[in-house]
Amino acid sequence: MVPRIRDIEEDDAMYVELCRKGDTGAFEVLVERHQKRMLNVAFRMTGDYDEACDVLQESFLSAFKALKGFRGDARFSTWLCGIVMNHARNRLKQMKSRSRYESASVEDMEQAGGGCHAEGSCAAGESAVDKLEREELEARVQGCIGALDGEQREVLVLRDIQGFSYEEICRMLKIPDGTIKSRLFRARNAVKECLKDLLGELK
Amino acid sequence: MKDCRDIDHLLPAYLDNELSAEEKKLVDGHLSACHRCRAALADLKKTMGLLQGMQEVEPPPWFARKVMSQVREEAEKKKGIIARLFYPLHIKVPVQALATVLIAVLAFHVYKTSEPDVRRMDQLPAPAVELKKEQAPAASPQKMEAREERREAKTPPVARLEEKKRGSLFAPVPREERKGAKALDEAVGDLSAAARQRAPEPTRPPEGIGNAAPAPEAVGSAARASKAEEQAPGSRMYKRSEEREALTAEAGRRQKTTFEDREPSAKKDMSYAPSAAPQAMAKSKTAAGYQLYLVIRVSDVSSAADEAEGILRRYGVSATARQLGERRRLLTAEIKGQHLKDAVDRLKAVGRLRIIGAMPGASETPVPLRIEIVGGS
User: Fold this and answer.
1) Do the Cβ atoms of A196 and B43 come within 8 Å?
2) What is the 3-state secondary structure (H, E, C) of B33-49?
3) Of B46, B59, B68, the CB nearest to A39
4) How far, in Å, CA of B193 to CA of B26, rounded?
5) Quick check: B20 contacting A, CB < 8 Å?
6) Euclidean distance between CA atoms B324 and B151, whole angstroms
7) What is the per-residue pLDDT across B215-256, written as a single tens digit (0 to 9) for each?
8) Of B276, B316, B293, nearest to B374 (Cα)?
9) Strand, coil or helix: what is A85?
10) What is the C-alpha separation between B51 and B49, in angstroms, rounded?
């Protein structure tokens, strides 16, 4: 989780303005800047790397089209993340209807989560065994996130994994602070319950 | 004391320090006593640690490029739509509309300028009467003469259009007329200064040129006509023939001929180098000083005209008479300078005579003379 620097946020506004004036090159800067974090949001939401990439692609395109409507009262990253959440939600619905026939289970989700780490995001210096253990563990966690109900998953991903502030989440999801917290606490407990058998073994 | 289930629900908020002091005290109390709930809190902490410590995935290297290609495609599409929808609105349509309006205005203008000419030609004498009526007794007859002079300077429609463009046509607006006359006075004032230097017989210095408004006027119109002729070479033939018809009554034309007679070089200029024509005409303007205007106010116009013609015939001059209106007659003639004074003296007997313009000195040179006989004195 990369902490966002205020300077970069203000800088974003400049590039947004350039985009509005028709400078597509400026949009590329914004894509480069935000793609990683947004991809992680989408990935934690969908649990599938390729789906996440698709979701993000759609999101950036929608953002570009909707840039004229972005009034700058929120940060660009917040606004963009709201779009990503919408697309992820829609994608999940599609995936769900698909999985009705394919009867996708938590195991599938875990598998999907595990597959992603082949992209080489693991920390250097890890032994092969550690890496395997770690991948397995993360796949389990991802599976539990995927098992959450949609609303809880959203707040958990945004708050606990991506570290957005309550205020930012309020803007993205357009729900009050109290609702976010109650959903978040329930989500945490649910994940805890989901990982119960595993957690006992963890130090 | 709440049971473990309730405490379990409060634990995430407890961990986030989101509980009220009362609830926090409650949870703390329970945790110190309940081993199971302490384990649950530890699990929660571990879960949080796992969630927050999850590895981030990297976007594929081609990702930004792919997104941008789509974005550019979208931008092009947008541009395409904009071009199709708005380009004609913003650029093309106004240009076309402007062109249409311009053509319409031009057409209207051409119509407006050519149509009244036809009308004017048809009923030439009528406006003269009108003008006369318009001319209040206070208005000097010179003004009328100026009008007549202009009217006589018959020019083909094209040439007339040229004149109108210069804002000095037959506009029946007396004020403009006066203004034009004044401007011409000034112009001729300059020219007469030149005339003084060149003139072979400037018996009287043309200080009375201010009074001689109609003379410059006539020359001005002649000059204009020739200028128009120059500007509209296509109408030259037509104009020439028309001029010939109106020759006898055409004062400006007369001056031109006399001047040409006197200065063959100027004539040469005109015939061989059309571009030099304006200069030549400018020179001929100096001849204005020799044109003499006589206005005779009488009670019976026709008999007075006969009388005047008789007087002129005595000097071997045949005058061309022209009816200008019910009570106006114009006689144009050329009289030798040496007879002029005598003739004028005799003409004084016909009616109330006014001499407009400088009296030329006695010489062999023929002086163009205009005698206007106005009835109803």
Assistant:
1) yes
2) HCHHHHHHHHHHHHHHH
3) B59
4) 121
5) no
6) 10
7) 444 444 444 444 444 444 444 444 454 544 444 444 444 444
8) B293
9) helix
10) 5
